[in-house]
Amino acid sequence: MSSTTAPEKLSTNASFDGELVKLSAPANSLGGLKTTFNVFLPRQALDGDKVPVLYYLAGLTCNEDTAPWKGGFLRDAAAEGIALVFPDTSPRGADIDGEDKDWDFGTGAGFYLTASKEPWKKHYNMYEFITSELPSLLAAASLPLDLSRSSIFGHSMGGHGALTLYLKSLLSTSPSTKYLSASAFAPIANPTQCPWGDKAFKGYLAGGLDEGKQYDATELVGQLKGKDGVDLKVLVDVGTGDQFYQQKQLLPENLIAARDAAGFSASQLAVNLHERYDHSYYFISTFAPAHIKFHAEVLKAAK
Amino acid sequence: MSSTTAPEKLSTNASFDGELVKLSAPANSLGGLKTTFNVFLPRQALDGDKVPVLYYLAGLTCNEDTAPWKGGFLRDAAAEGIALVFPDTSPRGADIDGEDKDWDFGTGAGFYLTASKEPWKKHYNMYEFITSELPSLLAAASLPLDLSRSSIFGHSMGGHGALTLYLKSLLSTSPSTKYLSASAFAPIANPTQCPWGDKAFKGYLAGGLDEGKQYDATELVGQLKGKDGVDLKVLVDVGTGDQFYQQKQLLPENLIAARDAAGFSASQLAVNLHERYDHSYYFISTFAPAHIKFHAEVLKAAK
């Protein structure tokens, strides 16, 4: 990998006594394409404290701005003194034929994996970007972050990303980033068994669904069974009014079954179903305070 | 005016234990054009209580969705048990030549006035719509709202709208809607003296700037001087990092001078300047909790 240079600062917005900083950098893992991400720094960070980091992965069609705008996360992150990092959902501008044809594949739909199939493998590597290159870029930006205390959460495709990046870090002996906790709003919890995941894995991966199992939260929980010293700190919220839940794109029931089969408890991997709530950011923002609190307790205890 | 028929319900999103309802109706005051607005109903309303109403007027280029998405208002409104009503910023689809040419005039820029100049006077009547027809539509929708307890707030052009609708209701002996309090984020506080207001008033009003004085918060505060029994309940927040403040589009200093000249106190009309904050919803959401609390105290005391 080429050496990491400091990202360019595009803008700063004061918010909740801290600030939201927008940064941009070419990413080696994305074939050299420029990518943009937002970082919320709480007051404590502006005053020079190294604060823990909570990554947020957004869902299909979204970008790095969606959650800062609509998630309602900054207020509680400010109160807890933790930083938030919002990357994009895919590379932009790879100029691949068909890249912009569908809303659930290509641009805005990177699925947080490392592509192994042409013509995607050069650019569509959000897994590598998030777990490895993004932390290097944050370090190169000289932001007051304690990257050794990182957690991750996300929505829908990003909920899938958050769960899988966390679970993969537990399965690895030397993860690029070790996440201390994970949470998800309406995650695609068993992508090898649903239409969105089927399309993504067959599209991006030379090995198709079989290769996709390493990016499937339900599969990964099964792989953790009996592994010594593994504790889980996972929170999942899903609305039963969610059309994608009803269409079996999310399949939290499979994640629950895998958890139970692997011998993990509901307090290690909590899956809460909520009547009436849908897939929108109106759902997310409602449960945002609980998710920030969940991660803040873990991150602050790790100091 | 034709009789008011019940608005059509377009969608419902559960949020913060309440729900956001999107409604649509043809508006007589907007030349019969269909307009869309959002209503947030807290849990108390879903349970059948008649809750007080806080109207939010959005700024240039925005619509009825901007603030529900980005404002961070629903959480505190839910906690306080007050409803929020989010109308659009202008009529849509009047099909007037030049209507979509500029971002600060025409579509998305209704300026909360009653147009008196051709070709705008048939449709561009957001003042009449907000103060008179919208409450009738809310009543016709049979929502559990106590419309006798209404307050109003807004941002930028909508801050101008909130302040002027409130102040005009104090000056009127029989206002269509009597607002109990008003607040504004970065309002255009003296539009007859700034480029945005100059363009709007000369464009929409046959009497130009002179007619525009009745839609100018700084002018209206002056008119309230010495009026018996008038109390003010107004809160204004402005960021000094706001480019439009710096460009003299907002002129809160003129509002302060008018307040002082009219003998009102800073607790009756508070104008707070905040370093670093800009014109964005990152600024608004930061001060959202304080604005909701300000109105909730007034609205709940009025029961």
TrEMBL record, chains A, B:
Biological process, per Gene Ontology: formaldehyde catabolic process
Record's keyword annotation contains Transferase: no
Gene Ontology molecular function terms on file: carboxylic ester hydrolase activity; S-formylglutathione hydrolase activity
UniProt KW Ribosomal protein keyword: no
Reactions that this protein is recorded to catalyse: S-formylglutathione + H2O = formate + glutathione + H(+)
Alphabetical keyword list: Cytoplasm, Hydrolase, Serine esterase
Enzyme class: hydrolase
Domain of life assignment: Eukaryota
Pfam families (UniProt xref): Esterase (PF00756)
Subcellular location per the Swiss-Prot or TrEMBL entry: Cytoplasm
Predominant subcellular localization, coarse grouping: cytoplasm
Record-level GO cellular component terms: cytosol
Catalytic residues identified in the record: S156 (charge relay system), D242 (charge relay system), H279 (charge relay system)
EC nos: 3.1.2.12
Family: Belongs to the esterase D family.
Function: Serine hydrolase involved in the detoxification of formaldehyde.
Protein name in the entry: S-formylglutathione hydrolase
Provenance organism: Rhodotorula graminis (strain WP1)
